[in-house]
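>> received
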Amino acid sequence: MRHEVRHEVDDDATRGPQAPPEDEGPGTLSRVRGCVLAVVAVAVVGAGLWIRHLAPAVDDVGLQLAGTARAARTLVGGRTADFRTALTADLVLTGAHTAGTVLVFWLSGRTIAMRMRHRCLVVYGIGAAVAACVCAVTEKLLLLHGLNGADWAFAWAAGFATVKWLLLVLTVPVAAVLVVIVLKRAAFHGRARRRFDRERAHRRTCVCGNGHLGATAPSGPDVVPPWPVMVWGRTRWPGTARAGSSRSGEARSRETRWENGSRVPPGREQGGLGFCVSGGGIRSACVTLGALQALRPQLRRARYLVSVSGGGYTAGALQLALAGTDRRRGDDRYRTRTRDVFMPGTPEEDHTRRHSKYVAEGTGQWLAAIGAVLRGLLASLGLLTATLLVLGLALSWGYHLVPLADPARLPGFRAPALWAVLALLCGAAVFWFLWLVSLFLAVRSLSGVLKSAFLTFVWAGLLLAVVVVILPALEWATARLWTLHGPGTAVSGGVVGLLTYLTVLAGTTWRRVESTERTVRSARRTRLVRAVPVVGKYLMVWVVLVVVAVASLLVLGWAIHVGRTWPGAVQIGLPVVLCAVALSLDQTWTSLHPFYRARLATAFAVRRETDEDGAQLAVPYDFDEPTPLACYGRRHPGFPQVVFAAAANLSGDDRTPPGRHAVSFTLSYDYVGGPDVGYARTDVLWNRTGPVIRKDLTVESAVAVSGAAFASAMGRQARAFQTLFALSNARLGTWLPNPGVLDSLWDEQADWGLPPMPGIRRLPYLLREVSGRYPLDDRMLLVTDGGHYENLGLVELLRHGVDTAVCVDASGGSGAFAAALGEAMALAKEELGVEIRIAREEWEKLVPGSAPPLAPRPPLPPQPPQPGQPAPVPSPSPLAALDLRLSADAVVVGEIVYPRPRVDEHGRKLGTKGELIVARATLTPDMPYALLAYAQADHAFPHDGTSDQWFDSRRFDAYQALGHWIGERVAHLLPAESCPPPAGYRGDGSPRARRPAGTGA
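>> returned
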C-alpha cells in the first residue's frame, strides 16, 4: 500500500485502454478509406491540371499580375480568344484544386490531426483553400471583363491574384505533405509493434544482452499518464479520463495541484531515509564523493539517492561500479561491495582522481575537445545554410514563375500587391474595432469570432507583406551589397564562423572572475571588474547573434537573386543532399552530447576487477559496452535507488509559470519521466525504441543528461545563450520520448493515424531548438540539466515523501544566503505543498562571517596618546579575509511539514512531519588545518565556478576532504542505528550474510 493518491494512479494506469472522450477526436476512417480518399483527392487535382493542359498555352499568370490595361493588351496581342479559353479552363482547375485541397485537409482532420492545434490548422487550411478559390474566381471574372474593354478590372484582378497566389503557396505544399503522411501511416501502421513483439518473443535474457536473466525488471504499468491540464484551444491534455476524476464524480481535493505534483511511479514507497546531492560539475562530484564516503553506513540503509548534474557524476560512478557483471559467466567477478565501493584508497577512487580533468588533459585531448566543438559548429551552420539556400532557390523560381515583384527593376514593388496588403491590414483594423465593441457589450460568442477574424487578417497581411515587400527588398539590398567574389565570400563566411566559434568557447569555458579580486583592493573597482566581464560576455553573444542573423539574411537574399541561374546539377543536388542529410542524420549525435558523455565515462565509468594473482585494478568500461538504465541502474541490495534528476523543457504556459520553462524529468531503473509529463517503464521504453535513441537510455547517458548545463533550452537561463548554443551545436542535452503520448502510441488498438515514435532526431528538432519551440504534447522532449529545474534534487526527494532528507549542497555561490536552498524551499511549497522550516538560529550558521574569528587579536591597553602623536593603530590580522568567509557551521537542521499524512509500503501512517539535514559546502573555523590552509591560498574555494571542469589533484583532494568533513558532521546527527535497513536487504550487499542493524561497515 502507498499513499492514497498513488493508489489512484496505479489503478488507473493498470486498467485496460479506455475510450477517448469526444474532444480527443481519433480518426474514424479505416486505413482503406483514408487511402482511397487521398488517391481521389490527388486524382481530382490531376484531372483539373489535365484539362488546363489541353487549353491554349498562354501566359495567363502574366495577365493576372499585369495590373494595367496597357500591360495586359501588350501581353495579349491578338490572342484574345486563346486567353478566354485559358481563363475558362483555369476556372475548372480552380474548382478541381479547391475540391481536392479541401478533401485532403478534411481527411487529415479525420485521421492524422490528433492535437487541437493541428485541428485548428486544418480549419485554417480549409478556409484558406476556399478563400483562394473565391479570389481566383473573382480574378478570372475581372480578367474576362477586362478583355471586353474595362481598363479598371486589371488592377483589381492583380490584387486578387496576389492574395490568391499567397494562399496557394501556403496550402498546396501543406496538402501535398498531408497526402504523403496519410499514405505513409496507413502503409506502416503497426510495424513498430510487430517488431517489438518479435524481439520480445525471441528474448530470453535481460535487455543489456549480457546473458543473465532479467529478474530485476520492475513490475507495474507500462505508462503512468501525467495529470491533466487545460491546454491551447481549451482542451484537456491528456484526453483520457481517469476514474475518480471530476468527470466521474467529485474532485478529490482542493489541493489537487499538490496531489498531482506528488505523483511518483508505482513501487516507490514513502518514508525512510533519502539523500539528494546537488549540481555543480566536478566541484559537486568531489564534495559528493567525500560526503558519501563519510556517510556510507547511513547511505547503505537509505531508500533513495537523488542526484543532479555534478552530484550525478558520483552517483552514476557508484552505480556503475556495483554493476560489474561478466558477460561470459554471468557471475560477479569484481567482488565490489556497497560497504567499500569508491571508499578511500580503492582503485576506482584513484582512477577518478587521476581523470579529474575529464574534459581534456594533454594536447591530444584538448585538440579533440576543440575539434568536437568545431565539428558541431560546422555541422549546424552547414545545415542551416543549406536550408537557407534551398529556400532561396525555391523563392527564386517562384518569383520567376509568379512575378509578384518585378524582377526587371528591383526592388520591383507592384502597386496592386501593395494595395492588397493595405486592404488586408485595414480589414484587420475593422475587425479589431468590432472585437473591442463586442468585449464592451460582453457578447462572448461574437467576440471570439471577431478575434479570430482579426488575427487571420493580421497574419495574412503580414505574410503578404513579407512576400511582396520584404523579400523583394532583401533581394534588392543583397544585389547592391554582395559585391564580393568567391574568395571574398569564403573569407566573410569564415570570419562569421570563427567569431561564432570563439564566442561558443568563451560562453562554455568562462571562468569565474573572483580570482581577480586578489589584485584589486578597492571595493568599487572589484564591482567594476565583476561587471565588465559579465556585460562583455552578454554583449559578445548578442553581437554574434546579430552577425549570424545578418549573414543568414544575406545568404537568403543572394539565393533569391541568383538561385535560378545556378547550374542544373547544383539546383538538383543541393535539395537532394539536404533532404538526405535531414532525414538520415540524428541531430543529437551531431551535438556535443556524445562527446560529453564519452568524456564523463573516462573518469566515472569504472569498476573493480580482481586478477588471478589477487591484484585489484580499476577497469574502465569499454566504449561499446551498453549500460541500459533498466539493468545497470537497478537497485542493489544494501544500496539506495539512484534517481537521476534532469529537466524537461516546455514552451508556453500550459504547464510552467512565466520564467520557468522546465519541469521535473527523472531517470531510474524502473521508470523514466515526471509528474508533469508522465512516466514510462524503463525496460519497456528500451525495447520499444530504436537503436539510436536507445543509446540515450543508459546509465552513462543519464549522468550526462542530468549534467547537460549548456543547452539550447536552460529553464530560467538567458535566452541569448540558449539560441547561441543551438546555432553552434554546443548542446549537451538530448531528445527523449515523451511519456505523456506513449499511452496512446503503445495501445494495442492505437489509431492508425497516430504518428509513430521517431527513430532518429531529424533536422526539425534542431530547428525547434533554434526557435525555442517545445510543445507539451510532442512525441519527444528536450531533456537537459536538472539544475534548470531545481539544482539540489531536494524537491524530487520530497516528492517521494521521505522521513529524513539529507541534502548535500555543493551548488556554489558565495552570497550571504544559500540561493539554491531558498529556491528549492519555494518550489517545494509551490508544487508539493511541502513546507520547510529552518529556525533563524540555524540558518544564521550558514552565513559567511557568522563564525568567531580564527585568531582574534587582543585589544591594545588603553594608553593615552602622547601629545602631538596619533593614536596607535593595530596591525591587520593575516586571517581577516579568511574570517569573512567562515560560517559558524556547515550543517543545519530543519523541519519538513507535508500537506497530508504519508503511508509506507505496509500501509502504516507516517504522519506529516519529517526532518531535513542540509550539509552545505562552506568553510567553518573547526575544519582540519589542511582545508583552512588551502582556503587561505585559494580565495575562490569552495565556490569555484561550475564552468571550471579542469580540477588538478590538489583541488580534487580539497573538495573531497571538504565533503568528507561535512559528511562526518551529518553522521553525528544521523547515526547508523537510526536507519534500519529495508526489509529483505542485507547490510553488506551479500545474499549470504546479514548484519544486525547498526553495525558499521
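>> The mean pLDDT is 80.
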